[in-house]
Amino acid sequence: MWTVRSASPAETEALAAGLAPHLAAGDVLCLHGELGTGKTCFVRGLARGLGVTRPVTSPSFVLVHEYRGRLPLYHLDLYRLRGPEEAFDLEEYFHTGDGVVVVEWADRAEGMLPERRLDVVFSFAGEDPGARTLSFVARGERYALMVREWLKGARTGH
Length: 158
Ligand SMILES: Nc1ncnc2c1ncn2[C@@H]1O[C@H](COP(=O)(O)OP(=O)(O)O)[C@@H](O)[C@H]1O
Ligand SMILES: [Mg+2]
Description:
The protein is of the alpha/beta class. The chain has a single domain (about 1-155), classed as Rossmann fold. It is built from 4 helices and 7 strands, in the order βαβαββαβββα. The chain has helices spanning about 10-20, 40-50, 85-90, 140-155, and strands spanning about 1-5, 30, 65-70, 70-75, 100-105, 115-125, 130-140. A 7-stranded mixed β-sheet has the order 1-7-6-2-5-4-3. The structure holds adenosine-5'-diphosphate and magnesium ion (MG).
């Protein structure tokens, strides 16, 4: 597990933008953490890093937004997921293989998440209203290598 501190929304975006070049079709990123900890902010950075020009918003009535960049980016937000039937309809996204899948509130689809994925856990970091910690948990060797490569080149704030 790798833990990175972010001091601002811009820094969270920049971290994610820096991860984007390491991503390939079929990669799955699952974002966990309370409301307001920066998950959507991170997706915004990922999109920018993938060359998406359309603004990223939180999927609200639809649970999925698709963006076109260097690779397709499928942005799922399961916050409003109503039940297992709805989750079932989304399962195909975890196995599309033609783009990058990023999932907010991924734990709401616990049983259907792929075994190999990158989990990112977001939390508030103390008193500072702009501080967050992002913990990366690689599930599978590919993701472990990816995070190592990425953090080698990233400004981590340490
Ligand atoms: N270091 C930080 N990283 C990300 N967002 C931050 C940070 N500091 C403050 N914020 C603020 O926290 C909120 C995060 O919102 P959002 O990305 O929508 O969170 P989530 O998707 O987890 O609910 C935004 O209002 C953002 O400006
Ligand atoms: Mg969000």
